[in-house]
Amino acid sequence: MGNLDTTFAALSHGTRRAILARLMHGESRLSDLAEPFNMSQTAVSKHVRVLSDAGLLIVEKRGRARHCRLNAEPMKVATDWLIDYQAFWTHQFDNLAQHLAGEGD
């Protein structure tokens, strides 16, 4: 479960989610990845480090440039964990629908 904590903590920031969304389209150099954000490359690098530490992206140094690519496996683990609660919520909503329809009396 410790990995889940790290994954959810990394995903908790909008900038980090935006970085991952950009990487869904393919690998990117760190300098290109930082381009659309209104922050320094150093600040973006800190977000990349959090994502890398969580295993959500892989950073490779090629020459002078650092290249980043998505590793979605930790998100699959988080999704699998969340899916376990789907049956609970489906049951809750079914009960609510029955109650609202007057069948729960």
Q: What does this molecule look like?
A:
- The chain is an alpha+beta fold.
- The chain has a single domain, classed as Arc Repressor Mutant, subunit A.
- The protein has helices spanning 2-11, 14-23, 30-34, 41-53, 73-83, 86-100; strands spanning 28-29, 57-62, 65-70.
- Strands 1-3-2 form a three-stranded antiparallel sheet.
- It is elongated, with a radius of gyration of 19 Å.
- The model has no long low-confidence stretch (mean pLDDT 91).
In brief:
The chain has one domain (2-100): Orthogonal Bundle (Arc Repressor Mutant, subunit A), CATH 1.10.10. It is built from six helices and three strands; from the N terminus they run H-H-E-H-H-E-E-H-H. It has helices at residues 2-11, 14-23, 30-34, 41-53, 73-83, 86-100, and strands at 28-29, 57-62, 65-70.
Name its key features.
single chain; 105 residues; alpha+beta; Arc Repressor Mutant, subunit A; three-stranded antiparallel sheet; 6 helices
The CATH topology annotation reads as: Arc Repressor Mutant, subunit A
Structure classification: alpha+beta
Low-confidence region ranges: none
- Report the principal-axis shape: elongated
The CATH architecture would be Orthogonal Bundle
Number of separate helices: 6
| CATH superfamily membership | Winged helix-like DNA-binding domain superfamily/Winged helix DNA-binding domain
Content of β-strand: 5-15%
Summarize the topology:
Layout: H1 2-11, H2 14-23, E1 28-29, H3 30-34, H4 41-53, E2 57-62, E3 65-70, H5 73-83, H6 86-100
Antiparallel strand pairs: 1-3, 2-3
Helix pairs in contact: 1-4, 1-5
